[in-house]
Write a structure and sequence with these properties.
The protein has 322 residues and is of the alpha/beta class. The protein has helices spanning 32-49, 53-59, 66-73, 90-103, 105-125, 128-139, 158-161, 253-286, 294-302, 309-321, and strands at 145-148, 165-169, 172-183, 190-197, 203-209, 215-219, 231-242. It has two domains: 26-143 and 258-283, Acyl-CoA dehydrogenase/oxidase, N-terminal domain (Butyryl-Coa Dehydrogenase, subunit A, domain 1, Orthogonal Bundle); 145-251, Butyryl-CoA Dehydrogenase, subunit A, domain 2. It binds flavin-adenine dinucleotide (FAD).
Length: 322
């Protein structure tokens, strides 16, 4: 993203330009309206998220008050067309993911699970009536989604080894099993749950409401990474789901995999955002040390024992390189 203009070198009031991680000016490829959205995301992350997030991290809690503010930014369903979604390109989706993760990976994950995995399952695997029913409130963040695929005993191997089962009884389905590590599940209204059909062994997708009989969630506590994301252990005990709430175009794990394929790049963008945030934060602290009297002080700050080990190592490497 564009930042303020550098002053000419050699002038007494010269200050180097702020460091920013979009080295190749990828945001310049976006349209004007897409860049405007990205600017709003940065204002949101710097103005709303950054001031409060460490406090929430320390309390292992989620900042629910940011949800309506995130809705105002207009980032529900970036890359989806119709149903009240933000639209735009997939590059924009990636850059929004990066911008969110640049300040906080948990907030980025909340957004990714809600509008990506959960709403994305409905977008790709729901029929028209289901998309009209669920997507507009999700795009407005009035209803929040989760995505339940992983199980206590099965992670990467859910394609062949899923243990949660479903069987049809008249106009309903009966679900049994557990889903673990499910982001947003402690409070989500719309829980997409994947289950293997008894008999056919085909994986099917369901939308399960938080008040559905037989559905319960226990918060997973004492996480370190992505601590602000509220992960849940979902238990399905003869959980009855109407046929109308089965995702009509999810007929096998191949359909589940389409959702994973669509959202996978977002996870890579999160990684880029985390690195960008760490780099910009550190490099912008380092800049005063490159010239003028602040050099020694800044250098001292960088080897402060209060700094983390990785930063000290990075600072050491910079000194060695000179
Ligand atoms: C913070 C957090 C949030 C999450 N949110 C969600 C969510 O919202 N919804 C959801 O469904 N899940 C969620 N998950 C679960 C996540 O998707 C799983 O952790 C992931 O699928 C890996 O499964 P696993 O942890 O059981 O690891 P395993 O599958 O046991 O894998 C362990 C290691 O073995 C490797 N491995 C596994 N199989 C193979 C193989 N065949 N060949 C080579 N290497 C292999 C893996 O790469 C990994 O390094 C979340 C997890 C975390 C930690």
């Amino acid at each position: 993203m564009a930042t303020e203009q550098a002053k000419p070198i050699g002038k007494p009031d010269y200050a180097p330009p702020p460091i920013e991680g979009d080295f190749y000016r990828i945001a310049a490829v976006l349209t004007d309206s897409e860049r405007a959205l990205l600017k709003r995301v940065r204002e949101f992350t710097e103005g709303v998220i950054a001031p409060v997030i460490e406090d929430y991290w320390s309390r292992d809690a989620f900042p629910f008050e940011i949800i309506p503010k995130m809705a105002e930014v207009g980032i529900g369903g970036v890359g989806y067309q119709g149903y009240g979604a933000a639209g735009g390109s997939w590059l924009l989706n990636g850059l929004v993911a990066m911008e969110l993760a640049r300040v906080d990976a948990s907030v980025a994950t909340f957004w990714g699970v809600h509008t990506g995995l959960s709403a994305g399952s409905i977008y790709l695997c729901g029929d028209e009536e289901q998309k009209q029913r669920w997507l507009p409130p999700m795009m407005r963040f009035d209803k929040i989604g989760s995505f339940g695929l992983t199980e206590p005993l099965v992670g990467s191997a859910t394609s062949g080894g899923m243990m949660t089962t479903c069987r049809r009884e008249g106009d309903n389905w009966i679900l049994n099993g557990q889903k673990k590590w499910i982001g947003n599940a402690t409070f989500a209204d719309i829980n997409v749950v994947w289950a293997r059909e008894e008999g056919s062994n085909q994986v099917k997708g369901f939308v399960v409401g938080k008040d559905n009989p037989g559905f319960s969630v226990e918060k997973i506590k004492t996480k370190m990474a992505l601590r602000v994301v509220q992960n849940g252990l979902i238990t399905l005990s003869d959980c009855r789901v109407p046929e109308a709430d089965r995702l009509q175009n999810a007929n096998s794990f191949k359909d589940t995999a389409k959702v994973l394929r669509m959202t996978r790049t977002g996870v890579a963008w999160f990684a880029v955002g985390c690195q960008m945030g760490a780099y910009e934060r550190k490099a912008n602290r380092w800049i005063p040390a490159r010239s003028g009297p602040a050099r020694q002080d800044a250098r001292q700050r960088h080897i402060d024992p209060g700094d983390d080990a990785a930063s000290r190592a990075a600072t050491g490497r910079r000194r060695d390189a000179r």
